[in-house]
Amino acid sequence: MAPFLNRRDLQFQLFEALDTEALTARPRFAEHSREVYEDILNVAYTVADRYFANHTREGDLNEPHVVGGRVQLPAAVGEAMRAFREAGFFSAHHDEELGGLQLPWVVMQAVQAHFQAANVGSSGYPFLTIGNANLQRIFASPEQQQKYMLPLLEGRWFGTMALSEPQAGSGLADITTTATPLADGTYAISGTKMWISGGEHELSENIVHLVLARIAGGPAGVKGISLFLVPRYRVQADGSVGEGNHVVLAGLNHKMGYRGTTNTLLNFGEGGQTVGEIVGEPGRGLAQMFHMMNEARIGVGMGAVMLGTAGYLASLEYARDRRQGRHASNKDPHAPPVPIIEHADVRRLLLRQKAFVEGGLALGLYASLLVDDLQTGPEAERTDTGLLLDLLTPIVKSWPSRYSQEALSDAIQVMGGAGYTRDFPVEMYYRDNRLNPIHEGTEGIQGNDLLGRKLTQAGGRGLEILLARIQADLNASDDLSGLEDIRAALRTAVTQCTAALGALLPRAAELGPDLLLANANSALEMLGHTVVGWMWLRQATAAARALPGARPSDQPFYQGKLHAARFYATHELPKVRAHADLLASADRTTTDMHTDWF
Amino acid sequence: MAPFLNRRDLQFQLFEALDTEALTARPRFAEHSREVYEDILNVAYTVADRYFANHTREGDLNEPHVVGGRVQLPAAVGEAMRAFREAGFFSAHHDEELGGLQLPWVVMQAVQAHFQAANVGSSGYPFLTIGNANLQRIFASPEQQQKYMLPLLEGRWFGTMALSEPQAGSGLADITTTATPLADGTYAISGTKMWISGGEHELSENIVHLVLARIAGGPAGVKGISLFLVPRYRVQADGSVGEGNHVVLAGLNHKMGYRGTTNTLLNFGEGGQTVGEIVGEPGRGLAQMFHMMNEARIGVGMGAVMLGTAGYLASLEYARDRRQGRHASNKDPHAPPVPIIEHADVRRLLLRQKAFVEGGLALGLYASLLVDDLQTGPEAERTDTGLLLDLLTPIVKSWPSRYSQEALSDAIQVMGGAGYTRDFPVEMYYRDNRLNPIHEGTEGIQGNDLLGRKLTQAGGRGLEILLARIQADLNASDDLSGLEDIRAALRTAVTQCTAALGALLPRAAELGPDLLLANANSALEMLGHTVVGWMWLRQATAAARALPGARPSDQPFYQGKLHAARFYATHELPKVRAHADLLASADRTTTDMHTDWF
Hints:
Two copies of one chain form a homodimer. The first copy, chain A, has about 600 residues and is of the alpha+beta class. Among the domains of chain A are: about 5-155, Orthogonal Bundle (Butyryl-Coa Dehydrogenase, subunit A, domain 1); about 160-280, Butyryl-CoA Dehydrogenase, subunit A, domain 2 (Beta Barrel), CATH 2.40.110; about 460-598, no CATH class. Chain A contains 19 helices and twelve strands. Chain A has helices spanning about 5-15, 35-50, 55-60, 75-85, 105-120, 120-140, 140-155, 285-320, 345-375, 380-415, 425-435, 445-455, 460-475, 485-505, 510-520, 520-545, 555-570, 575-585, 590; strands at about 65, 70, 160, 180, 185-195, 205-215, 225-230, 235, 240-245, 245-250, 265-270, 275-280. In chain A, the strands form three sheets. Chain A has a five-stranded mixed beta barrel with strand order 4-5-12-7-6. Chain A has a two-stranded antiparallel sheet with strand order 1-2. In chain A, a hairpin with a 5-residue loop joins strand 8 (about 235) and strand 9. The longest helix of chain A has about 35 residues, at about 285-320. Chain A is globular. At the A-B interface, helix 9, helix 10, helix 11, helix 12 and helix 15 of A face helix 9, helix 10, helix 11, helix 12 and helix 15 of B.
């Protein structure tokens, strides 16, 4: 069985392409060292391998179902949760005083990557729980944190985010779940929430839902939305779990993939009062939720990368083992068949996968390190860091979601009919990952966010910072020979991006928001492909610097990095142009289409 | 529930974009008329709607399984086979003296399209049977046709093609199934065949396998491969079904999709002698099988088109019904939500689907009409027709397989979370269609066929004919205003193709076959996208000519054709350039990659 993750690559990404070790110079991480991080990653690997990878297919085949009113999951899921809890991962990035290790977020993402790669379905429960606690850490009152957050950090209770409703998925402004003030300052929550992952199960003592709702009588639209902590079971004064809170499972969604994570339709206030506590001020719900959402968007991107990685490694192993055919130049029918990795088109499919998943991993970890910089980096740089992270977030979410799906399609293709069967995991990964372009904001939402908000906020400062960082990395590799084609391809792509945005954005007012956003997908594709090109320059630079002094056993790894960067530069970066040209033209083909012409 | 097929579009494709009616001037079709064809298509629609569309999801959920040694399928599959048989479709394209209607192949493909769209899984059984009979009609002896083909035309027996083996899928030269001559001129067949669709079931009285095998002592490689008729049950002198022929089901494959078609591992000669009859001369097996294979490749392309079509129509219906959000320019939170088809990015996703599936349909039917031209067109043109059909076949097989998958991904995306669940059919179509780039020759095989064989055979005459036909259609639309951008985009793409092939092909000997074929995927993408651009010019031309005289109720249809052509020209044809540039460079990135660098 192929490994689910390339540990050598993760090490390279964290400590060679990025300088994660430098974080230890910051006071919060002063007790850490590279060895500490590597030890923690080793634990993550062991737990993921033993307790998560062992039931990935079982979770897929035996999808959540209801028996006697309770959601049934394979027993192994509970074991996995216990192992994750015992390893301390629910609180590892939190303060020491809260029982955490003060792990940097980039290392925490690398930890989580193991579980996403090993079993994305089971990993959903802890990751929602961690995200929920992170939101509470910022916005909940000390009393609320004591009551609702600490049990999450201990892994005794789990968390969800409950935003969507049957009539409002992408359009959150139209949610109708209501919160009616009660005499004691709490609220009665009433309404139906849809697509709630981890919304019901028996894995934890309690479930803490973060629920968007409208306080009765408040304004329409997003301004009337507030955020509430709503437990499945009411919490007693001593913090123990009490009676039911009338959050009722109305149904399970039956998904194509990602089946290990139960996905629910929940009725709040059915058969009795559902009590919730407001988080912070009324009307701030969507803004607060976006904290969890932005974190989740990076997490979704990373999850896509890891599914793509697991598929790549499975198809790579197959391609090395499976013998079939001969080189086209060999006409001797008596010659033995070669491993299919010898065939150029199979190698193309493998290189494409490598370029997509390792490029995506570099991007996800780069963004995660920005989260650390935002929290612990030099104060003077934090505004810029935040703007860059804002700009990159829609790309980090959507690019790997899309291109890991391409990679997984390639993994199936490498394996042919075998890849299309349940005898191998790649068909499952392909089904699993197809969720990633949908949840936590569809690709369309990400495109609108990028072109309609992130590229123009603060006078376009985010783009300026991005371009300056790319330029700095181009300059920093200027002395390296062998990277000329990579640099040239990236420079061309950057020039095309700059020209297209320079042609479009000044016309935004004239074009109007509808036509502008009609071009959002082109912006997402153009910038996404370019940003990943930048990630490949950074990886190629690190590899080229390491190669001369590398041990012989490590040289193929660095050569592979250099060659995958070349592949991305020659096969992928030239695709930027078509998107840039379309964007520069402020294309109106989609807006000109009449609905009755379909 | 959305319709599975757009009948208006099929009519347009057959009788406006193509001149199928002109076939009635040929002696074989002299009794026909457009009305006859339309009546037959109406019957196909009715049968597909009542007897195939009714159990598509059932066939997916209740996948074939073995009980008591027999393959179990839903009862509705048997009903569907009966209805197909009673409608006379097993023999509709055959001679009247064989009980057929002498239907042109293009009309027969249009008939089959209904069943592929309604239920691709159940349609697999008749289509393999029809293909098997077509091969027999050309290569089997009159006695064999009497014995093995007539029951297929009656739909009493079904057929398969049995090529692959566990160690030889794409690499057919390495098959090891053996045929040992017996005293009476028949052969004892021994070996294992893998991936045999329709290889075992209880739907028909008998199953006739067309089996590739090696006569003991023959040459290695493809020259030693012969073709055999191997029935599941032996056939008695009076043509009735006799004792078992020791073709044993060794296992069923469990697929991601396409589950309605049983897919088997078969042992020949297990527990007794499997008797087969050779078709034609020894050593001609692969060449003979390629007749069925080429036909099946067009059928796979058409199947992909129809899955994409069914998904497009389902997502279109959803987009018209589902209300969510407002136009970006409307900031009033009290305004009612709009149908999501109003959002530009949803319209983009729908236009892309329309462009891919209707472009693919035009291509599949164009190729099918070439099959008619080859059989009944002017004698003097048949050599050229055959070369053009040869050139187009790998494109007809692979382009829709790939781009219907893109379309189906877009269909899911339009529907968001709903599209990812089993509440709607699009997730099933997405799983179903992922088989199409694999079976009947993978995409890699199609690329090699195109660049390594079809583009160079007969001195490149196939490409000459293709370019001449495109030029003729460009000239024929020259007087039409409003098509300028479409013509310009197609001309640019054609110029890029010509330049790239002009740069590459003269260097073929110098580069050697390995490096040449390393670039096969670029050739496939480049020519595929260009050829479909041509199909869109043809459709736009037909629409532009029809529009001025069209009834008001028909005008939106023609406007939609024109606009989808514009979309393809602006959003898709510009992608040709990156592939052409890569091809022209005789890229060596994939061949330069060392296997230990992964």
